[in-house]
Amino acid sequence: MESQNILVINGNEYSFSPGETILEVARRNGIDIPTLCWMKRAAPTGACRVCVVEVEGARSLVASCATPAAPKMVVRTETPQVMKARRLNIELLLSSGQHNCLVQDLDMDSWTDFQLKAMAPEEHKDLCPVYGDCRLQELAIKYQVRGCRFLPAEPMHKIETVNPFIVRDLSRCILCGRCVQACNEIQVNNAISFGYRGTRSKIVAKGDRALRDSDCVFCGECVQACPVGALVLTQDLETNQRYKGDTRLVRTTCAYCGVGCQMYLHVRNNRIVRVTGVEDVGPNYGSLCVKGRFGYHFVHDPERLKTPLIRENGAFREATWEEAYQVVAEKFAQIRKESGADALGVLASARITNEENYLAQKFARAVIGTNNVDHCARL
Ligand code: SF4
Ligand code: SF4
Ligand code: SF4
Ligand code: FES
User: Fold this and answer.
1) 228-287 per-position pLDDT tens digit
2) Highest mean pLDDT among 8-17, 87-96, 99-108
3) Which residues form ligand 4's pocket by a CB distance below 6 Å?
4) 93-121, pLDDT tens digit by residue?
5) Assuming Cys at both sites, which of 13, 24, 171, 200 could form a disulfide with 155, CB separation 3.0 to 4.6 Å?
6) Could you tell me which residues are beta bridge partners of residue 266?
7) What is the 8-class DSSP label of residue 21?
8) Closest alpha carbon to 165 in 298, 297, 290, 302
9) Which of 194, 181, 169, 152 is nearest to 36 (CA)?
10) Shortest CA distance to 33 belongs to which of 12, 10, 68, 64?
């Protein structure tokens, strides 16, 4: 049976497992097929059609991301017909909105105030906020498409800047649906969906409200999924994050809870400017919650406590760790002597590791002598 699961791609035979798509078999074997709307861990939608390939006997080109591999299937990924179709689809997507980056003929009159403002910090008035970090632009350059053959569609959607963390510029949305999948299938927050029909189609939140007035929890997953500049982090605009080659990635484990999400800190000039999830590894496989993705400003906060403080005569003074331990130990001993061990309690945290929580209860029971141990996760 196994030997029947063979298909031919570009003249070579490859085996596949039942359920695998043409795209998955091709990528597993190092054959490049471009994608825009396809997203790992979500059901394929076949929305963008830049992944089209030729399948012998099929009446038209097929979307490789949504077509299961079949025995004896003969696939070609780079015929002139395939290339022509991909180019046309990229061109149509560029014309579907305000994609006036360098892949278009520059027409400054079509720039929105938001776009102009986004450019201002770097004084590159001709750059989009995601210039250099845009999958559509990357494909347009690769397929040598400038996107000016068709008249660009009139922008129909106002830019939404009222939300914390996220700016939505749906004039650049290509309706790939990745944000909807990220929100509904990956994070299961169900905050956004497709709304309206035909040319009025739009990604909507709670009957077309701003994200801040919807069920959105600002996890930022949709921004990480968006292949273009339709969803941008407010902080990226503020910190001028676009197109920065001098940002290094530091891999670490999120310290906010015990899940242990793997994340990249994007560090520039020794400061964290962005956080993204690490793809392909557990437990989070690229996802992060609002705390992991956005809660890093304390790291550089000037008011962050870096040394222990001891209160003396109603005021705090800086102390060494040794001094602080000494004071705490003396006070604990004094309380236990005067009022008994149960006058003390230990509150542990979901923000520390299992091992540290184990030590906390051990300290309470074996050192202090009380079973008064509790944990914030009980909330
Ligand atoms: S979203 Fe991408 S394709 Fe559109 S203008 Fe920005 S960089 Fe260009
Ligand atoms: S930020 Fe999170 S909850 Fe809000 S729309 Fe995006 S994916 Fe959904
Ligand atoms: S907002 Fe971005 S991810 Fe969502 S449909 Fe539009 S282009 Fe795709
Ligand atoms: S990636 Fe296959 S249709 Fe979009």
Assistant:
1) 999 998 877 766 555 556 789 999 999 888 788 999 999 988 999 889 999 989 999 999
2) 8-17
3) 35-38, 46-51, 63, 65
4) 998 888 877 666 655 666 667 666 665 55
5) 171
6) 249, 274
7) B
8) 290
9) 181
10) 64
The reply to whether ligand 1 has any atom less than 6 angstroms from the CB of 134 is yes
Q: Provide the pLDDT for residue 327.
A: 96
Length of the chain: 379
Selection from 303, 300, 305 nearest residue 273 by Cα: 300
Tell me the CA–centroid distance for residue 170 and ligand 3, in Å: 8
Cα of 179 vs centre of ligand 3, distance in Å, is 5
> Which residue stretches of the chain are H helix?
22-28, 80-95, 113-119, 135-142, 178-181, 221-225, 234-238, 290-294, 321-339, 354-362
> Angle at the Cα of 122 (from 117 to 124), degrees rounded to 5?
80
Q: Which residue has its alpha carbon closest to ligand 2 atom 3? A: 216
Asked if residue 67 lies in contact with residue 77, where contact means CB atoms within 8 angstroms, the answer is no
pLDDT tens digits, one per residue of 183-193: 999 999 999 99
The values of phi and psi at residue 289, to 5°, are -95, 180
Strand, coil or helix: what is 365? helix
**What digits encode the pLDDT tens for the residues 238-253?**
665 555 567 899 999 9
Which residue ranges have their beta carbon within 6 Å of ligand 2?
182-183, 187, 189, 191-192, 211, 216-222
List the structure tokens of 201.
């189609």
Beta-carbon contacts of 217 under 8 Å, excluding residues fewer than 6 positions away, are 189, 191, 289, 290
| CA 220 to ligand 2 center in whole angstroms | 6
- Any ligand 1 atom below 6 A from CB of 135: no
